[in-house]
Each structure stands twice: as structure tokens, then as C-alpha cells.
Amino acid sequence: MALKGRLEAEGITCYLKNEFTTQLMNYLPTFEVELQVYESDLDCVKEVMRF
């Protein structure tokens, strides 16, 4: 995921919820991958996403 890489390059810790579940069970459309960040990093994330 490009956004995850960009956030990590800026030093922001982030996680992909359900990343491996969707790889193992790709025939079930009910699992969505969700990018998660710490609430304390939210302002930094918004700044990175502006560009």
C-alpha cells in the first residue's frame, strides 16, 4: 500500500488490519484492509495526506 509506505517514510507507525486475512481468504469479500495509525499521530498523518 503506497500510503503505508509514505507514512512509514515520515516516521509514522501504521498497521494494516486484516492484511493477511485477505491474502488467505481472498474468496470472501467481507474482509477489508484498514490502515490504522495511533491517535497521537493523526495530525501528522493529515499533513502527509495533504500532499
TrEMBL record:
Pfam families (alphabetical): DUF2007 (PF09413)
Source organism phylogeny: Bacteria, Pseudomonadati, Bacteroidota, Flavobacteriia, Flavobacteriales
SUPFAM superfamilies: GlnB-like (SSF54913)
Protein name (Swiss-Prot/TrEMBL): DUF2007 domain-containing protein
Residue ranges of domain DUF2007 in the record: 3-50
Top-level lineage group: Bacteria
